[in-house]
């Protein structure tokens, strides 16, 4: 398993350069094709056949600035990607950013976005893009934090494990990154009486699975009631992990909008990159 196609959100956000550079470095490391996606920020129902507005019209006075902003964002993406020499292409999409990334993400191995930053005035950067994309495109999403990220992101990996299908999907999605890591730790925070990872055989099976993918990992479990989201963030910060891998949990109804407490807390407060899948 490897990443062959990586999509990155290209916009006018101040966080875009860090996000694009990380995506480009990953594409170089994995010999992947990098696609920068910029959306004009208007539903595709408005322009189902692509952007067309008559110059000088009222329609153009509203939509042309959005189109121009997205075009400039793509030029910025191309300049940053060219610095690394990675094979890349630009895509200008007439849609909302969340919808464009979710649709195009279905034809990629990894989607790279930024952590939500509500202090920005750019409409396309607000709207829970990370979780919406993860829930609707069925591909892993790498969420780059607003905080500065180490140049070699992904060398120290912490994986949240509870035996669920979401955690399993995230573990599988992270294999290409974990194979290149210098330290991988799987951690489980269990309530008293929970038997997951409670016996040697379960740990051995998990370790053997990872070893067959050339990943050597430490597997630890804590027997106590604990706020899982805060515990993960605290452990990741104290032990200097630069990538946190989690399963993306949501409620059965309106799951693209409402997340489980652990996932939401991590996405809101993480200062390291987060890879999530479901």
From TrEMBL:
<dbReference type="Pfam" id="PF00582">
    <property type="entry name" value="Usp"/>
</dbReference>
<dbReference type="InterPro" id="IPR006016">
    <property type="entry name" value="UspA"/>
</dbReference>
<protein>
    <submittedName>
        <fullName>Universal stress protein A</fullName>
    </submittedName>
</protein>
<dbReference type="InterPro" id="IPR006015">
    <property type="entry name" value="Universal_stress_UspA"/>
</dbReference>
<comment type="similarity">
    <text>Belongs to the universal stress protein A family.</text>
</comment>
<feature type="domain" description="UspA">
    <location>
        <begin position="155"/>
        <end position="278"/>
    </location>
</feature>
